[in-house]
Amino acid sequence: MRSAVRENHREDVAGRANVEDTPELLGYYDELERLEAGALWTVANKIEPWQPKSTSVPVLWRYRDLRDHVLRSLDLVTPEKAGRRVIYLNNPGRRDVAAAVGWLYSGLQVMRPGEVASAHAHSASALRLIMEGAGAYTIVDGHKMTLGANDFVLTPNGTWHEHGVAADGSDCIWQDGLDIPLVNALEANFYAVHPDMQQGVGHPVDDVAQLWGNPGLRPTTGDWSKAYSPLLKYEWAPTYEALCRVAKASDGSPFDGILMNYVNPATGGPVMQTIGAAMQLLRPGERTKAHRHTGSFIYQVAKGSGHSIIDGRRFDWQERDIFCVPSWAWHEHANASASEDACLFSFNDLPVMQALGLYREEAFGDNGGQQPLAA
Ligand SMILES: [Fe+2]
Ligand SMILES: [Fe+2]
What we know:
Layout (H helix, E strand, L loop, with lengths): L22 H12 L9 H4 L12 E2 L1 H14 L2 H4 L3 E3 L16 E7 L8 E3 L3 E7 L3 E5 L2 E5 L4 E4 L5 E5 L6 E7 L1 H6 L5 E3 L13 H6 L20 E2 L1 H14 L8 E4 L14 E7 L8 E3 L3 E7 L1 E6 L2 E6 L3 E4 L5 E5 L6 E7 L1 H6 L5 E3 L12
Antiparallel strand pairs: 1-19, 2-3, 3-10, 4-11, 5-8, 5-10, 6-7, 6-9, 8-12, 13-14, 14-21, 15-22, 16-19, 16-21, 17-18, 17-20
The site of one fe (ii) ion has 4 residues, from strand 15.
């Protein structure tokens, strides 16, 4: 029996598939389908687009809209039952894979003082940016790190890790970022709960920052052969100071202002194999030019307010708002203040794009480098 509707993605362009349906061909396609096969020319133009076609849409998640809902989960579920008390960000174009954009997952997690989540490990790589609260900590393979607002911490692929809040702290909210959709797409995801539920702390608290967090200095005892950064925690104060110092010495990028990548101090490369991260500073009144590139990005506003224009749509943001830029979407950023800096934290899948030779970038050439707003 013939299919009711058969896809045909014809293009009247030399070198592209352009075969008209005929009764004979439609019968032929049906016969192929019964053999779990198909004629490439019916789908070639769809599966090989001229340029990337993201199914993700640009989204701004306002913190003032989400915060009360995140806090409400404190009363609705326990970390013991929920595993992790997280409200995840669900891109309308990526609901089938629970992605915030592209192959990246993100969520807002909340814990009460005195709560400890169970230790676990997974193949997905993960990061956290602390949004609010006091007393948060993360333990990664026996290294305990204390965390405050805008501190950035890694829980890489395969490490035992757990999160908690000190008993004398306050309710803590942070953003999680993971490559779960990517690792699932690659069908390579494993998950394990620590046999003792909690792990011991085997090193002085905050030892990784003391050992690896010194600018331009590498410890002679600092042998490191793992594929992720030994500096598992990147503190906000020195990060912001570095941005301010660079702003005195450089005009920065026309597309990003002053942008500093978080790096692995042992290699200078990205913090983890699949996820890169950066903090950028937009000077008072700064408005960047538009560009686009492969790779998916999730931003969190670490400081200040402003707007971004993504594929012609304007998104106004303020501190703690989160937004995404899909792969190959035009984007530009502006600081709303004439007197204060604005800072954007972001994480991305650029290490994957670069490792696989898929990174490409293009400037928006028209209109002085800035996008006209869509009607
Ligand atoms: Fe985890
Ligand atoms: Fe960009």
